[in-house]
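hey can u check if this looks right to u? its 279 residues, i copy pasted from the old doc so theres a chance i mangled smth
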Amino acid sequence: MNKARIYTAMLTLALFGACKDEQATNNDTTDATPVSNVPAPVQIPFTVIAEYPHNHTAFTEGLQYADGIMYESTGLRGKSVLTKTDLQTGKELQRIQLDGKYFGEGITVLNGKIYQLTYEEKTGFVYDAKTLKQLQTFSFPNDEGWGMTNDGTNLIYSDGTDVLYFMNPADFSQVKKIQVKDQYGPVTDINELEYIKGYIYANQWRADIIYKIDPATGNVVGIADMKNLRRQTGIPPMEQATDETQPEVMNGIAYDAATNRIFITGKNWPKIFEVKLDN
């Protein structure tokens, strides 16, 4: 996740050609030796099925498809919004602007309500999914809020570490937490989330990778290496972004359960892509 307080530092590194080091991830392990008893995850191929328009100024932090609507939360203080959009046309149907002190983060839709995290404010919001009317606020103890999804019962969120937290949507108490790990150990920078057929699919900040995570154990059971997606679809490499208005990290996974479609996008990407993974 391109967090405001370190954006400048990362940009400087990128301009000096060090972006490859910044994009190193847990599965870049050519010379690594497994250190845990977690089985090696299955490699998940991807195919681009279709593409749809996406607001290229949307600094995407949360994405979910529900009841024929694409819901999206964007970040940056003073620019954070929650929107409802028509997938086919990209037409914005409704939006609300967050107070300027909040940096919008992950969202999820559960039982007719939208739950939204904020970045460093330890505050969450609950909205009516039809009207976007704010119903209440809630707090969470983590220093940061990143991605969010749900399993039909509990809210599930990430905070940029290797831990995922399960939260009761009624009283916002913690139900449990799991550590995300693969055969090389903890997997950090877990970002935007989506619950698909009993598994948690997750972006990793600064990497064109999607992890498939077992919610019972935290084990990574599959990895989709999406590095070629940019080349195939014309999205510029992340290191070419010279400011926060240009196409940035892959961030955004949404699932249409009715038609078994997976959608992905990124910060300031001009397109949403329907992809075939293992769905």
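The chain has a mean pLDDT of 90.
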